What does this fold into?
Amino acid sequence: MNGSVRMGPQTLDLTIGHLQLATAAAVTGATVQFSTDGGATWQEASVTGAGDGRYRATFTATADPWARDATVSLRITATDAAGGQLAETTSRAYRLIR
It folds into this structure.
């Protein structure tokens, strides 16, 4: 409830869709990248899911043991069958605790 999680295995559930009343093409894929160094480097998360817009990303988040304030940033992309694309980056999405 305070925006922090323990370092280690992480699971992120995604639901990707279109605006209400918009013509909706099937969501065909999603990718998730994460950074624990403020966005200096990015790593790929493992993403599983079907074409219904629901995906699960898993990754292991650790940080430099000397880092004073370790956070996870997320970069998510998605595509649909009509060629539409979504890209969203959330800096400092949540804090890591030891």
